[in-house]
């Protein structure tokens, strides 16, 4: 085909897609990705499909595959503003694998997808290194991914990330509402901060308060930006260790506290007719939650329906196993405590004052959660 002045020659790079930059990004991330591969992973980085040897599943009587997919939302805006991209990947892994472990499943493999306006190899490699670190913490192989350059659709500095993972659980060991019993203790496990939910609210509060990300916040002991980029805590390794322990026999259900807050997510794993009565006074949210409340004048109920309020994972545990479960989690560096108890719905106290009762949530006809009392230092 010949060209004329009216039809100038164009290359893919001139159209905005730099395949050489993509290749460089792969080379920069290759070692981090390979470090998550055990002997069960076949092939290497760059294959059309990731292969995992699942021969071990032959030992299962009835293996169930568990899958999850998620992103990290507008927390990416903070990473972009600070030009720090090596933590957002851990957020992504946490959002995905900690949903899988909720049913008692062990994550096997994860893949990622990064869409961007322009491939900057070092930035893409930082993101993937963060994903690889998250997979290492979760004991999960990162077996594949895709980086897509979308010039004209996204600005050069824009990017978004998503991930998916698959895990396995023996059917007879699956956790959930069907195992929860009256009298079960609700154990709350500390979050590392905001995790990756509610950043649209948090960013709006910061903007309204006129705060910069470089502002030193005495209550936080660091800059606001550093606090907001604190990676999501990954609970999978600690929870699998608990489930493998004798104390794990008492674990009946788990709930990952993400969008919607503690009450809405806990209600999803409770059976109809039961209510978890949760005492806010049993823990104190980290300083960032108090600051967001004060800076924005955000009502407590709205905070609780948006943020994790310092509790990132909860478990319903048989009362005789609760102390042992907490002891194991604490020994692994995960602060945990009893924050409530499961009672019959008709025996739950009536909400008063700032109490909140949530019944069922996110399309699940589950039980109820009553948030009562007040956090120390809150009014």
List keywords for this structure.
alpha+beta, 11 helices, 15 strands, cytoplasm, phosphoribosylformylglycinamidine cyclo-ligase activity
Give a concise summary.
This protein is of the alpha+beta class. It is built from eleven helices and 15 strands.
Describe the model.
By secondary structure, the chain is α+β, with helices and mostly antiparallel strands. The chain has helices spanning 19-34, 75-82, 88-100, 121-138, 199-209, 224-228, 236-244, 261-267, 287-296, 300-304, 322-331, and strands spanning 41-42, 51-52, 63-71, 106-116, 141-149, 159-170, 185-190, 216-217, 222-223, 251-256, 274-279, 311-317, 336-344, 356-361, 364-372. It has a 7-stranded mixed β-sheet with strand order 10-12-7-13-11-15-14. 45% of the residues are buried. InterPro entries: PurM-like_C_dom, PurM-like_C_sf, PurM-like_N, PurM-like_N_sf, PurM_cligase. Belongs to the AIR synthase family.
Helix content: 25-40%
The count of strands amounts to 15
Detail the poorly predicted runs: none
Proportion of beta-strand residues: 25-35%
Inertia-based shape: globular
Report strand order across the widest sheet. 10-12-7-13-11-15-14
Separate helix tally: 11
Overall mean pLDDT stands at 90
The ordered H/E elements are HEEEHHEHEEEHEEHHEHEHHEHEEE
Helix/strand/pairing category: alpha+beta
Largest sheet descriptor: 7 strands, mixed
Rg result? 23 Å
Distance between the termini: 75 Å
Pathway: Purine metabolism; IMP biosynthesis via de novo pathway; 5-amino-1-(5-phospho-D-ribosyl)imidazole from N(2)-formyl-N(1)-(5-phospho-D-ribosyl)glycinamide: step 2/2
Domain PurM-like C-terminal: 183-346
Protein name: Phosphoribosylformylglycinamidine cyclo-ligase
Organism: Brachybacterium kimchii
């Amino acid at each position: 085909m010949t060209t004329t002045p009216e039809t100038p020659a164009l290359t893919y790079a001139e159209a905005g897609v730099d395949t050489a930059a993509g290749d460089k990004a792969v080379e920069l991330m290759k070692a981090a990705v390979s470090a998550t591969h055990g002997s069960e992973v076949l092939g290497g980085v760059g294959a059309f499909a990731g292969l995992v040897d699942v021969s071990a599943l032959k030992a299962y009587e009835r293996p169930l595959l568990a899958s999850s997919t998620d992103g990290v939302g507008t927390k990416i805006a903070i990473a972009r503003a600070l030009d720090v991209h090596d933590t957002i990947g851990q957020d992504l892994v946490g959002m995905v694998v900690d949903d899988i472990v909720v049913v008692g499943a062990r994550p096997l493999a994860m893949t990622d997808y990064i869409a961007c306006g322009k491939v900057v190899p070092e930035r893409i490699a930082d993101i993937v290194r963060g994903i690889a670190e998250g997979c290492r913490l979760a004991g999960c192989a990162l077996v594949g991914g895709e980086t897509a350059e979308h010039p004209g659709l996204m600005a050069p500095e824009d990017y978004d990330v998503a991930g998916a993972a698959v895990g396995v659980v023996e059917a007879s060991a699956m956790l959930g509402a069907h195992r929860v019993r009256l009298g079960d203790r609700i154990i709350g496990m500390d979050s590392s901060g905001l995790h990756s939910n509610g950043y649209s609210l948090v960013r709006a509060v910061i903007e309204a308060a006129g705060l910069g990300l470089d502002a030193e916040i005495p209550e936080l002991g660091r800059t606001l930006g550093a606090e907001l980029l604190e990676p999501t805590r990954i609970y999978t390794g600690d929870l699998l260790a608990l489930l493998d322990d004798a104390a794990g026999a008492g674990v009946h259900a788990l709930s990952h506290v993400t969008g919607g807050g503690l009450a809405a997510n806990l209600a999803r794993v409770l059976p109809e007719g039961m209510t978890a009565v949760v005492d806010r006074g049993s823990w104190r949210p980290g300083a960032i939650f108090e600051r967001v409340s004060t800076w924005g004048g955000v009502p407590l109920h709205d905070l609780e329906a948006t943020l994790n309020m310092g509790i990132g994972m909860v478990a319903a545990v048989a009362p005789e196993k609760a102390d042992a479960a907490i002891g194991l989690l604490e020994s692994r560096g995960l602060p945990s405590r009893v924050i409530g108890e499961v009672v019959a719905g008709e025996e739950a106290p009536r909400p008063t004052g700032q109490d909140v009762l949530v019944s069922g949530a996110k399309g699940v006809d589950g039980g109820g959660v009553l948030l009562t009392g007040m956090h120390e230092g809150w009014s």
